[in-house]
């Protein structure tokens, strides 16, 4: 079986599972009660399933990206793609690491008040969360700029 066929099947399986998870989350309802500072509130029944599915998809994406970058022969992913094109395509992955490190040092460790009224004071996770959010902002901005440059046709042969 060709790699493109396997990738296509995997894509449709992940898409179908995502659809099932989202339907369960949005359509089944709010049947679980959770304690908050003002009493109790109704919470979605499948929130945990949705969160675990998002973590699984992020892990799958990360593994596939790293394996794809490592196994690319000589920086060439496709025989039609010039070497600088494939290196540029991998730049986003390699940009992630320094941006995350810089964003970590920019993070704020001020305690925050949660919905239950208690303070969350884990300095590492407060800073790590800020770093991840800043990294997402930077990489989405770089992605949008790369998309605009690509659509402008500057690098056409």
Summing up helix and strand content along with how strands pair, one would put the structural category as: mainly alpha
What general form does the structure show?
extended
Low-confidence stretches: none
How many β-strand runs? 4
- The helix count comes to 4
**Can you tell me the number of structural domains?**
2
The proportion of residues forming helix, as a percent range, comes to 55-70%
What is the H/E string? HEEHHEEH
N-end to C-end Cα span: 33 Å
Question: In angstroms, what is the radius of gyration?
Answer: 21 Å
Major β-sheet profile: 2 strands, antiparallel
- Multimeric status of the protein: single chain
Instruction: Look at the structure and give the mean pLDDT.
Output: 80
Q: How is the largest sheet built, in terms of strand order?
A: 1-2
β content, as a range?
A: 5-15%
Question: In words, what does this structure look like?
Answer:
This protein is mainly alpha-helical and 157 residues long. The protein folds into 2 domains: 1-71, no CATH class; 75-157, no CATH class. It has helices at residues 3-27, 47-71, 83-106, 123-152; strands at 32-36, 39-43, 112-113, 119-120. Strands 1-2 form a two-stranded antiparallel sheet. Strands 3-4 form a two-stranded antiparallel sheet. The longest helix is centred in the C-terminal third of the chain and has 30 residues, at 123-152. The radius of gyration is 21 Å and the shape is extended.
